[in-house]
Structure prediction request, 641 residues.
Amino acid sequence: MITFEGAAKIYPDGTVAVAHLDLTVESGRTTVFVGPSGSGKTTSLRMINRMVEPTHGTIRVDGVDIRDQDPALLRRSIGYVIQQAGLFPHRTILDNIATVPMLLGWRRGKARARAAELMELVGLEPAQAKRYPHQLSGGQQQRVGVARALAADPPILLMDEPFSAVDPVVRTSLQDELLRLQQELHKTIVFVTHDIDEAVRLGDRIAVYRPGGELAQYDTPERLLAEPVDEFVESFVGYDRGVRRLSFFPASELSLRQDVVFDAEDRVERARDAVVSDGEPWALVVDERRAPLGWVGARQLTEAPAGVTLGSLELAPFGHVFHVANDSLRAALDAAVLSPAGRAVGVDTDGSVLGVVSQADLGTAIWSVSE
Amino acid sequence: MIAADASGGVAALDWVMGIIDWAAANWSHPGEPDRGILPRLLEHMRLSYVSILIGLVIALPLGLACVRWSPVYPPVLTGVNVLYAVPSIALFFLMLPYTGFSDWTAIIPLALYTLVVLLPNVVDGLRQVPEHVRQAAVAMGFGPLRRLVAVELPVAVPVIIAGLRVASVATISMVSVASLVGLGGLGQLIVSEGFRRQFDAPIVVGIVLTVLLALATDTVLVIAQRLLTPWAHAGKGRLARKRAARAEAAAAGRDAAVGSGSTPDHPESP
Prediction:
């Protein structure tokens, strides 16, 4: 647990980096500091390992005042990942990762064995061990940066805009990797970013900073999106916060309709009886393994000659599906919006159709969670 | 005409052979360790290498201080530059009353002259260590001295060695001037044996040996850099090969288009 008690950083010329910070970072969770540039989030992070000394207040790690420790020793016990990775250009990847164990006085063989372990953990090829940082891509360098920070197995990991210098595709994969690592390692992570989407994606708790080094709101991502405390937070969080908040509600609670799903071998009459008489405009056709094939409209069903199978009709594409077990309401809504039938197809992990849900039914579900 | 050319060629050959004969005859004199070409060459090496080493030993801490207290750097650099503007011969004469005909009369001015190249290179070398690398070293828990020795200096090595290469060639060439005030080195061959006695051979031998010494020293420094900084070269060879291959392909396409059979010259490296 990291606690800021009235911590502030005010420079001699009067510049306020952090005005007055009271905040508790919970152990084993990911806490994200987010805010526009110059709002004091990076300064707050750097106070934790004494890269910046606070001018007022106290910071404690597990109850111990960090000023009671030698800065270099304190830093060796706290992992740090920096923007642009900050790898040592003159050392191999393996030796970069072994940096802190070597500083702690481990024997070279042991430190390198540990580094090799970490390369595997963060998804680097063993063949890259002997390479130098400039021979790796930006994304790979950042993986090395994470491995280096984890090498001595510190309980705390500080991450200072670690993924902001890589392209969006690589960034998403690095975020996924971090989420996976955190599920395995349960570190106390403090993560700084200016990207609210990244904050919502990674954080268990989010601290939003406003210009002038003040903490505007400290909340779970779901509550931050639902109830921003003021206009600043609301505009910082963004105007589609309502839709984004749906990512915190599972799609598994939706009630799916199965009575409008038909087999490709079924005859037209069967679908016509069940769908058209019921006032439903669309029916979904699936194959023998219940994988979706496409939509058939009520008009096609009424005009088709009797005795024809559904599979022989021209089907409208089913768009993209959502996974009932893992996806959120947001994914279901997106699937429904993009579907030509205005209905989202929910599938099982093996891709077989569990049922469909219309925009109207989604609206009811969204309404109920927003209450 | 052919005859004239031939006789000219024979004359040139005679001249070269004469010089080689002189060099062989005067290379060293057994029993007289201070006479001959070899002692002059060894003296030249001693004077230049000691000057360069002392220059480096001064430039490193001075450069560190200039990086640490950056306002100091401009006046220090100006001072070093002004010193360099003083003609070397004048400095040698100024030293004479204090150091006499000892090595120090040459070494002290020459060592100060190397600073004009070494100091800016040490400062630039340390300054080009990327800020994120420096910050990462702090955050990993390196103390200031350890950070300097284990991270900043190694990263600065290529720039520092580049400075050493320029400084050594300049120093090796300047040691010859010291002979004008009666100090040793290959310059003595040129000044006392050649110039005063109006005789070609010692001058040519002095020049050739000075140039060869400069080339050999430069080669040693290049090899040292390769060994000290494997990271700066790793992968570059492959990249250069790829680039060369691409240039070749492009050139081949161009050649085919204009129907020319000539092979274009490719620069080895950009």
